[in-house]
Write a structure and sequence with these properties.
Elements lengths: L1 H19 L4 H38 L3 H47 L1 H14 L4 H25 L9 H24 L6 H24 L3 H30 L1
Helix pairs in contact: 1-2, 2-3, 2-6, 2-7, 2-8, 3-4, 3-5, 3-6, 4-5, 6-7, 7-8
The structure holds zinc ion.
Length: 253
């Protein structure tokens, strides 16, 4: 999924950089960056909604105690947010490490064999559709301007100035999770006892249809199908934890 998004949003950027010079690049890069952040936020919120809804519906199926619901719900939200943050931190750090290694290798190659690297850059522009002459001229001009950034962009698809910060990625995904989790928490705690489960199920399914549509829109995939997938996933989660809660209520209570 992310692979096709990447190529779809990369092509306009590289086209404009060969047409309008390197100054056209930062705009499309930061737009893509913002889109990725937004998508990550929606996915994090989605996670918060589904896992917390499953948790509180399961507890509500076993017990009518508001205290039990609140305790289990808050502990679940905290655990989920931390697990999201740690997972995000690890994955973004790993990605940044490998990007840094690739950039260091590129920098070394530029120092060791600039002539070879110039022709490599020109070959990349030829592969994108420029004539041999124009490609060489573009490569020469970009090399004179900022060889390292040009190579990082064309060969690696990395903007050396815009590597993702693992701390901010961790913080924002935890925040998104908590924001999503608030919805099922409020939906289960606010209504009277007999309405708890139906209100939560309805609220969560409507919210998931919304986040599913938004994330499909951001990713450019068919909205109905994506929303349906998310809604079915959420319904399944709540259905299963409801059964688990009922069973546990019978066994323990
Ligand atoms: Zn190179």
């Amino acid at each position: 999924m992310s692979g096709s998004d990447e190529s779809a949003s990369k092509n306009p950027g590289t086209e404009s950089s060969s047409a309008a010079g390197p100054h056209a690049e930062p705009h499309s890069e930061s737009f893509r960056g913002r889109l990725n952040w937004l998508r990550a936020g929606v996915l994090g919120a989605n996670d918060g909604i589904v896992s917390t809804a499953g948790l509180v519906v399961g507890v509500a199926a076993a017990s009518t105690s508001t205290q039990a619901l609140f305790t289990a719900g808050s502990a679940g939200v905290a655990a989920g947010a931390i697990s999201m943050a740690v997972g995000e931190y690890v994955s973004v750090s790993t990605q940044r490490d490998s990007e840094r290694a690739l950039l260091a290798k590129e920098r070394r190659e530029l120092l060791e064999d600039p002539e070879y690297e110039l022709h490599e850059l020109a070959a990349n522009y030829r592969a994108k559709g420029l004539s041999a002459e124009t490609a060489l001229k573009a490569a020469e001009e970009l090399t004179a301007h900022d060889a390292f950034t040009a190579h990082a962009d064309v060969e690696l698809g990395i903007d050396p100035k815009e590597l993702t910060n693992p701390w901010s990625a961790a913080g924002s995904s935890a925040l998104a999770f908590v924001l999503g989790a608030l919805l099922p928490m409020l939906a289960i705690l606010l209504p009277p006892v007999s309405w708890r489960i139906p209100v939560t199920v309805a609220t969560v399914l409507v919210a998931l249809a919304l986040t599913g549509t938004i994330s499909a829109r951001l990713g450019g995939s068919p909205r109905m199908r994506a929303a349906l997938r998310v809604v079915i996933g959420g319904a399944l989660a709540m259905g299963i934890t409801y059964c688990v809660g009922q069973l546990a209520g019978v066994v323990v209570g």
